[in-house]
Amino acid sequence: MRLRSMMAATALAGAAAFGAVAPAEAAPSTASGNVGVQYVVNAVFYEHRNYGGSTLTSAGDYGCDTNSDVDWQRSSMPSAWNDEVSSWHGFSNCQARIYEFTNFAGASYGAYTNSNYVGDAMNDEASSYKHY
Predict the structure, then answer these.
(1) Is the pLDDT of residue 70 over 80?
(2) Does residue 1 belong to any structural domain of this protein?
(3) Of 64, 80, 61, 74, the residue nearest 112 (C-alpha)
(4) Is the dihedral of CA 61, 62, 67, 73 positive or negative?
(5) How many domains does the chain have?
(6) Which of 7, 40, 41, 127 gets the most CB atoms within 10 Å of its CB?
(7) C-alpha span between 52 and 46 (Å, rounded)
(8) pLDDT tens, residue by residue, 86-109
(9) What is the pLDDT of residue 38?
(10) Chain centre to alpha carbon of residue 37
């Protein structure tokens, strides 16, 4: 598995907020910052079903590989996004799985490239996610 750094960008009401997202396995970084690094979108999560409402963009310096292992993960959603996800689009060969609680605990839904609705049981319940 390739180890990578990851950023998540949250777009809410026209404003973007950035937060760190952990790769599947953390390793010491040899890079001296993110200046000049270009990120690729791995998934866009939506507030409402059928890809509507506000969005949370998950991005990294690479997409996902074709192995079945975890490529990217976030053990807790940004506070504004806890229990808000209703649908998502995957990009860069990534599938997503959402979890009911932080640290990938509780019920889960996925792994799918796209989901126009996470179902009644998981709607507005996601607190963490992984990309495969």
Answers:
(1) yes
(2) no
(3) 64
(4) positive
(5) 1
(6) 127
(7) 6
(8) 999 999 999 999 999 999 999 999
(9) 82
(10) 19
With 0-12 CB in 10 A as exposed, 13-18 as middle and 19+ as buried, what is 98? buried
Side-by-side strand order, sheet with 87-90: 15-21, 6-12, 52-60, 40-48, 87-90, 114-115
Sign of CA dihedral 43, 124, 132, 58: positive
- Per the domain annotation, does 68 fall within a domain? yes
Residue type, 104: F
C-alpha–C-alpha distance, residues 37 and 19, integer Å = 15
Residues belonging to the chain = 132
pTM for the full model? 0.74
SS3 94: coil
Quick one: DSSP state of residue 62? S
Q: Is residue 17 part of a domain?
A: yes
Report residue 7 CA to chain centroid gap: 9
55-68: pLDDT as tens digits: 999 999 999 999 99
- Does some domain include residue 66? yes
Say if residues 104 and 130 touch (Cβ distance below 8 Å). Answer: yes
CA distances from 75 to 30, 47, 86 (A): 23, 19, 18
